[in-house]
Amino acid sequence: MALALVDLLGEIARTKEVPSAQIAIAWLLAQRPWIVPIAGTTRLHRLEENRGGASI
User: Fold this and answer.
1) Among residues 4, 5, 24, 33, which is most buried (max CB within 10 A)?
2) Nearest to 19 by CA among 29, 28, 10
């Protein structure tokens, strides 16, 4: 089941032409107003990329 969810996430990301991480972040933001995703990364360009999840 977990792989099916990953596949679905990837398909949604491909249709929107964005990274899967942005779709995951967008989904988290849509759950409740008090949920704040914390994207763990050590690379600045990945942080900037993940920030795009807020606009999906």
Assistant:
1) 24
2) 10
Other C-beta atoms closer than 10 Å to the C-beta of 9 total 15
Domain of residue 20, residue span:
2-55
Q: How many domains does the chain have?
A: 1
pTM: 0.78
What is the four-CA torsion angle of 15, 19, 25, 26, rounded to 10 degrees? -30
Alpha helices in 1-56 (DSSP H): 2-16, 20-31, 44-51
Question: What pLDDT digit, counting tens, does each position of 4-30 carry?
Answer: 888 998 999 999 999 998 998 899 999
